[in-house]
Amino acid sequence: MNPILDADGTAQSLEAVALARAIEALLLDATVQVPARLVQPLPGGGSLFVMPALDARIAITKLITFTPANAGTGRPAIQGDVVVFDVATGERLFVLDGPTVTARRTAAVSLLAAQKLAAGKKGPLLIVGAGAQGRAHLEAFAKGLPLSGVMVASRSDASAQALVEHAQTLGVPATVVRDPDEALAHCPLVVTCTPADGVVLRARPRADAFIAAVGAFTPRMVELAPDLCRHVADQGSIVVDTADAVHEAGDLIQAGLDVARYPTLKDVVEGRVKARSGPVLFKSCGWAGWDLAAARAALAALRPSAA
Question: Check: CATH 3.30.1780.10 for 7-101+289-306?
Answer without folding.
Answer: yes
